[in-house]
Amino acid sequence: MSRFICCTLVLAFGLVGNGVAQDPTAAGVGASFHMTVDSAAREVVITVGPYHVPSDSGMDDMKMDMSMADVLSPRFAWPMDTWIRGYQLTVEDSAGRPLSRRLLHHYGVLEFDRRELAYPVIQHLLGGGAETGDVVLPRTVGIPLATGDRLAMYFMWHNAAGRDLDGVYLRLRIFWIAGNQLPRPTLVQPFWLDVNWHAGERDDFAVPPGGCVRMYAFDLPVSGRLLAASGHLHEYGSSVRLEDAETGDLIVRVEAVREPDGTVHNVSRKLFGIFGEGPHLEAHHRYLMVVTYDNPTRDTLSGMMGLMGGLFVPDDITAWPVLDRSDPRYLVDLRWWEQGIPPETIARGRP
Length: 351
Known about the structure:
The chain is built from four helices and 25 strands. It has helices at 24-27, 61-67, 328-338, 343-347, and strands at 32-38, 43-53, 71-72, 76-77, 82-92, 98-99, 104-115, 122-129, 135-136, 141-145, 150-157, 165-177, 186-187, 189-194, 205-207, 212-218, 224-233, 237-244, 250-258, 264-267, 270-271, 280-281, 287-293, 301-304, 306-314. The protein is globular.
């Protein structure tokens, strides 16, 4: 199952995953979690590892499915009231030397105390994939986080190096804005859509020879405007677009930048202005997400995904919907993620 707040800007864009890791080796037995606050640099640094990352080469379908599963960190509490404005992820060996970011299919951070915009489930605060870069927003833009908000990091390995790797660490730096900054930043929230989202189920799909178009209709509980948008696609993915379902008008479209073999190297970004620019989305209005795939091969492509993510500026951020902890979809989503979190970590969190 997948989530992506992906924007290459942020956010949700997380990105995506097929499931929560159950294999202790994949999850990293003995892996540690460490968080530090660097007030001078205004960043929170999260380090997890070491991990043994098996090679994907030569795996049968069952082993590949186990390998391509989300690994979760322990749940942790955010240390201060502040706004975050970006992040940087590095993959490192045991000596701190950088490794290829292509070892990750995707990564993200869950916000267990706030809901998504389009879905009544746990929010995907930030994230990215192999085809996305780090995100640093201007100091005039920030996502609010409160002291004690419960977070967890998730990620999925994709080791195409041809050999197993040991002693792999992930280091995530989250940049924040001082709480006394004046003027206050423009407050934003992640924006995330998945064309094949179903609570508690996998979100991947098959693409037949010749390609396909998949659509997802939705509405939003609050009005606001898009500040940024990008997407996540697999091989031979073409584009992700947002339309007004009632008028057919195009709102935003992002396109894949592909290698000759269909590998998605990047997905374009749409960056709108901070002061008033950007398409305005109305609450309780019907919209349509459209994902397009080409497939010039003779084979059906499995495990494909289509996501759009970015930043959303609510007209009234105090009207952001409260996470309904009795909603059946929330409960399914919570159980999905908690199966990968150490029980003792959950026990220390707020009920």
